[in-house]
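Input/output pair, single chain:
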Amino acid sequence: MLKASFLLNKYMIEKHVINQNYVRIILIYKAFYLPEFRNVNESVIKIFNNIITNHC
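Output:
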């Protein structure tokens, strides 16, 4: 689910780092339960927005 959410939302990062050669993002899931895709996707979007506002 994490990989699918990343691939679904990677356009958010790509449009802000056009001039850079590469961007490395590592997402690690650590919990004892399997969340719903909706929750994973919301978290990835929140992380990407945080990266965009603080580092681009």
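The mean pLDDT is 86. The chain has three helices and no strands.
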